[in-house]
Structure prediction request, 116 residues.
Amino acid sequence: MKITLRKVTKTPLDFEVKSNEITFKGYLEYHAGKLIFLKADLSGLLIKACDSCGEEFKMPIDEKVEFFISDGVYEDDNNIELDVVESFNGIADIDEILNSEVELIKSDYHSCENCK
Ligand SMILES: [Zn+2]
Prediction:
């Protein structure tokens, strides 16, 4: 699912994408300047290899995701520390964001029930 950033307004634009057993559901909303705010829930079951024994297991996840997407280069004029991801094609690729969030969770240390 790809969303054109220019079309995002102050009215929240809902999205929902799924990948295997994971659902990424939330909305995009225009913030200010070139910034679009993204807020979503990442929930479901993640299949991951246990970092201790290597066996694959299903890990329940329920994460809140919140950050800004900048339509082009982001210049921090106000020196406010914001969590900003830059988009250089004017598009928010929701599937790509979902995948990178999943990879981020996978890269943390997690062990299966047997190893706990
Ligand atoms: Zn294990």
User: Anything to note?
Assistant: The pocket of zinc ion is lined by residues 50, 52-53, 55, 111-112, 114-115 (CB under 6 Å). The longest helix spans residues 94-107. The chain is about 10% helix and 50% strand.
